[in-house]
From TrEMBL:
Keywords: ATP-binding, Cytoplasm, Kinase, Nucleotide-binding, Pyrimidine biosynthesis, Transferase. This is Uridylate kinase. It comes from the Bacteria. It is an enzyme of class 2 (transferase). It comes from Swingsia samuiensis. Its EC number is 2.7.4.22. The lineage of its organism: Bacteria, Pseudomonadati, Pseudomonadota, Alphaproteobacteria, Acetobacterales. Belongs to the UMP kinase family.
Length: 256
């Protein structure tokens, strides 16, 4: 695939262009990616690398908001598989995303960026409650807004939270920074013969059950024609590169 699509500010169509021009984007940071080389938890070097990447994009004039996962600390589904009440486990998972958000906020501030953490579950002594119009205002002022605690509801994931917030913030695209350099025909970490796609439609991802993101997130993006860009966030500068449409990534859009 050689051509790239560009989402117009009106959000109602695509143009064929060589270079994307994004005004506002949401980056979903995988919790697992924050582990770096560690077995669990957060690798401070990885926080610094991700923060430097985000700072580069912000300084290029793009408004950035973030949703952080919690899979490096706790996943409700895994706990439920061992007998824990699912909803209780999911609330613990959402709290895990708040820990990651605070770590990332600190990393971003060390890069000299202005930031706000907004939580979907109220915890007013450490972060602002999520208020949509306030979040938009923060971004207009050049602040990086980190949306924590997922959607605030059990039985969801931070991928769905990312699609939800990206739509609410009227972002031009949702970037999913993960451990693999795009979407493959099968999980590349389990199947070495899986092949990578440059471009897919939402329906391709749903019908072929390409499990890089959950179906609820893909459906939400599809309903609102929100492009999704999946890329590997382990190399320094990776986020800036995909925002400039460089390097390897898979883009999910409405039609090829
Ligand atoms: N078809 C596929 N193409 C690419 N990756 C896939 C595919 N199927 C499954 N995966 C897996 O999906 C993973 C993406 O999940 P990732 O860990 O980034 O998300 P997450 O669960 O949202 O993050 P976290 O819970 O750690 O915050 C990849 O690491 C990859 O191994
Ligand atoms: O809206 C949400 C978002 C997340 N959760 C719980 O948090 C963990 C961690 O999120 P990941 O997306 O897996 O990184 C998730 O496993 C859920 O248990 C939630 O309940 N609701």
């Amino acid at each position: 695939m050689t051509s790239k699509t560009h989402r117009n500010p009106s959000r109602d169509g695509y143009m064929t262009e060589k270079q994307e021009s994004y005004k506002r984007v949401l980056l979903k940071v995988s919790g697992e990616a924050l582990m770096g080389k560690a077995a669990s938890g957060v690798d401070p070097d990885m926080i610094d690398m991700v923060a430097a990447d985000i700072a580069e994009v912000v300084r290029s004039g793009v408004q950035v908001c973030l949703v952080v996962g919690g899979g490096n600390i706790f996943r409700g589904l895994s706990a439920a598989a061992k007998g824990m009440d699912r909803a209780q486990g999911d609330y613990a998972g959402m709290l895990a995303t708040v820990i990651n958000a605070l770590m990332l906020q600190n990393g971003l501030e060390r890069q000299g960026l202005e930031t706000r953490v907004m939580t979907a579950i109220q915890m007013a002594s450490i972060a602002e409650p999520y208020i949509r119009r306030r979040a938009v205002r923060h971004m207009e002022k050049g602040r990086v807004v980190i949306f924590a605690a997922g959607t605030g509801n059990p039985f969801f994931t931070t991928d769905t939270a990312a699609a939800l917030r990206a739509n609410e913030m009227e972002c031009d695209a949702l970037f999913k920074g993960t451990q693999v350099d795009g979407i493959y025909s099968d999980d590349p970490r389990r199947n070495p013969d899986a092949t990578r796609y440059d471009r897919l439609t939402y329906m391709d991802v749903l019908s072929q059950q390409l499990n890089v993101m959950d179906a609820a997130a893909i459906s939400l993006a599809r309903e609102n024609k929100l492009p999704i860009v999946v890329f590997n966030m382990h190399a320094p500068g990776a986020f800036g590169a995909v925002v400039r449409s460089e390097g390897l990534f898979t883009k999910v859009v409405e039609a090829n």
